[in-house]
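User: My collaborator sent over this chain with a note saying "see what the structure looks like." That's all I know about it. Can you take a look?
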Amino acid sequence: MKMNTQFKRKITPFIYEKLASAERARLQGDLETEFKYLEDAHVLGQQSTYFHTLVHWRMFVFGWRQRSIKEMLGQTLRLVGALTKTFLGLLPTGNTGGSNVSAFKPMSISKENQAILDIVNRA
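Assistant: Without extra context I'll predict from the sequence alone. Here is the result:
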C-alpha cells in the first residue's frame, strides 16, 4: 500500500463511514460492535498518520468511557507510535489496533476491509 496524499483522499469516505458506524453502535449501547468498527477504521487508515492517530484517539476515548486502564495505557503508547512511526511505514499489516493485541503483530485483513483497500489502491 502506498503512503501518500492520494491514499488519504481515497480512503477518507471509508474511514468516516466506519467511524460513523462506531458512533451509531455507541449510541445504541453496543460496545462490542463499536470497537469492531474502530478496529476496521484502524486497519483501513493506518497508512495515514492523520487517520492512524485519530483512530487511536477514538480507541483511547472508548477505554476512558469503559474506565479501562489497560486500554487507555495501550492507546497512549499507540498514539505516540502513530504520530512518530506511521510516516516511516513501520506498521504491522492488518493489526486491529486495540490493546488486546500486540502493537507489533501483523494480522490477516478481513475480506470486507481487503476489498475496500483493493478499491482504494486501484483508484
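A starting point for your reply to your collaborator: The chain has a mean pLDDT of 94.
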